[in-house]
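It is worth pausing here to work through a concrete case rather than discussing structure prediction in the abstract. The textbook approach is simple: state the sequence, then state the predicted structure, then interpret. We follow exactly that order.
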Amino acid sequence: MRTIGQSDIKVSYIENGVTTNLEPFIETVVWSGDVMQAARRLDITLTATIDGKKRIFKPKNGKEIRFSNLGAEYFRGVIFSHNIDHTGTMKITAYDEAIYLNKNTDTRIFRNMTASQIIKQICTEYGITAGTIVDTGYVIPKLIFREKTLYEMIIMALTETKKQTGKRFFMYTSSGKLHVVERKKQLVPYVIESGVNMISGNHTLSIEDTRNVINVFAGDEQTPITAAVRGNDSIKQFGLMKHVEYMDGNATKSQAEQRAKELLSKMQYQKATSTVEALGLPEAFAGRACYVKDVMIGFANSYYITNDSHTFEDGMHRMALGISLTDELPEIEYVAPKEEDTSNGWGGENGAEYSGGKATVNSNVRRYEELVRKYAAKYGIENMTELLLAKMMQESKGLGGDPMQSSESLGLPPNTIKDPEKSIEQGVKYFAQVLEKAKGDVKLALQSYNFGSGFIDYALARGGYSKEVAKQYSAMMAKKKGWSRYGDVNYVDHVLQYYTQESFGSGSKSTDAPNSTIAHVISIAKSYVGKTRYHMGWGRTESDRRANKFDCSSFVKHVFLRAGVDIGGPWHSVTTDTLVREGRSVPLKDVRPGDLVFAHTYKKYGHVLIYTQNGKVIGCGESGTKENSLAYWQSEYGIDAVRRIL
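Step two, the predicted structure:
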C-alpha cells in the first residue's frame, strides 16, 4: 500500500540507446507545471563527482530524461540546459515534448479545419507524437497565422472553438505523447486537510490588478475605433481603475467591444490567490481538481489546481499547489491579420497591382493554397500567392500530378512531374526567377512563364511587355522551330480573368526598413508579446527576467542586451530617467525602427517603448508586452522624447 508523501524515485538519462540511472547521484528532483503553459518541467540537482575532483557524468542537451516515482512514470522529456559548479553540483533542466510547441514559430493558413485537425497536422509536420486528440467538432472557416508559435496557433484554434460551441479542451503530455481531451466536470479523488496531509496554506485577496474601466482602441488614424465599458459595482467598491488596450488595426467595432467586455469580466473583481503545501500526491497537478479543508484559512471546497511544484528529496515527496475556485484554461483571442507586402522590393510599376487581389478559382485549385503560399514565402513572393493560384487555374484547373505545368521549365516533356507539391515548388520558383529577371513587371513575367525566359530580353529590348510584342515573338519562334504556332499570346489575359485586383500599393520596401541589428532587437521584442507580466520595479533580478517579469525600462534594457547591445547603466538602477539620457535626441517626425520613444504617462518620461515600423511601437506595460500604434500614445499621453541608440 502506498504511503502518502513517500518517494522512491528513478531518473534515467538516455543517450544513443544507452540508459544511465542517475538516482545514486540525485539530491533533489522538482517536477512542476502550470495550466497556462504548454510544457511541464523537470529540475534535477545531483552530485556529478565522487571525490570532488573529477566529473563522472556529462549530460548533453537534447537527450532524453525520464522520471518515475514508486514505479509510475511522471515525466518524459528533453534536456534543455545543464550547469555544474566547482564543487561538482550539477543542475539539469528538462521539458516534456510540448515545449516544441513554444520553440517553433511559423506563418500558416488553415482553411475549413477543426482545431483537432489543425493539432494533428502540426504534430505530424513537427515530429511531435500525438496521443488522444478528441474531435473538437467545429470547422473553423479560416485562420491566418503570421509569426505565431505553434502553441499560440493551437490555443487560438481552441478558443475559436469554445466561442462557437461552448466546449473547452485541455492539452497535456503523457508518456511522450500530446493529448487533447474535452474539459468536463471533474471528480475530486482526494482530500488535502490540515492535521492529516496538509503542511501549510495561504489565502490572499488583492485589488492590485483590478481594473474596472476598460478602453479598447482599434482602427487607424483615419478611422479610429473605441470601445469602452465600466464595472459600476466594482468602481463603487474599490474606486476607479482604468485599463487601456490597443487591438490590431484590422479589428472591427464589434471585436473591440467584445474584447472590452471580456477584459472587464476578468479584471473588475478582486483577485484571490490560494496556495497549499502538502504531502505529495501524483494525481495533484495543474489542470486537475482537489478538495482542500482548513478551518483557520477557510478552505472547505473543491478547487482547481492552476500550478504545481512537486519536490522529491530524502525519500519524501512534498508538493506546493496554486488553487482556484474557477477552472482556468489558456485562451488567446484570434484577430485576422492584415495582408502584408512581402515582395522583397519586387513589384515595380506593374507588380504592386498584383500583390493584394483575390483569385476566383475552383476547389481543386484552392486546396493547394497552403502549399502555394508555403513556397511563395520560401522564394520571396508570398504577396503573389493569389496570382499564382490564378495561374494554376489557367494551366490545369488544379488537376493532375503537375498542376503548375512546370515540367517544361526544367527542360522536361510536359507532365513529367507526377507529384503536385514538386510541381508547385518548381512552378513558384520559376515564376520568382522570371519576375526578378523581368524587373518586377508581372505581365512580362507571366508571359515569360508561358514562352520561356528568353522572351524577357526580347521584350525589354522593345520597350517591355505588350500583346503586340508577344505576337511578334510567337511568330518568330514558330517560324524558327517550324511550328504552326508558339505558345499562347493571350496567356496574360487568360490568367488575369481569374484574378481580381483588390488593393494597390507602392510595391517597394519601406523607407525606414531596419538594419540587421535593429531588426534583431525588434524580433526579440516581438517574441515576448503576450508572454510577460508587468509590475513597477520588476526585471532587476535574474530570477525576474527568467520568469519574464519586467517593467517598461527593464524590458527595453533586456531586449537590447539580448541583441548584443548594452544600453548602459547597471540593472538595479535602470529607469526611464536613466534611459532617456542614452543615445541622441531625434525629432519625432524622424523616428525610425529601434528608436526609444518616451511617453508622458504618470510623469514626464513615464513610459518607454521601442519604435518598430510603420507607425507602431512595442513595450511592456500593465497588460504585458504589446505592439500598438505610436499615434495612440501621442494622442492619449504625449511624446516627451525620442532617443536613437543605434
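Step three, interpretation. The CA atoms of residues 43 and 439 lie 56 Å apart. Residues 338-352, 502-514 have pLDDT under 50 and may be disordered.
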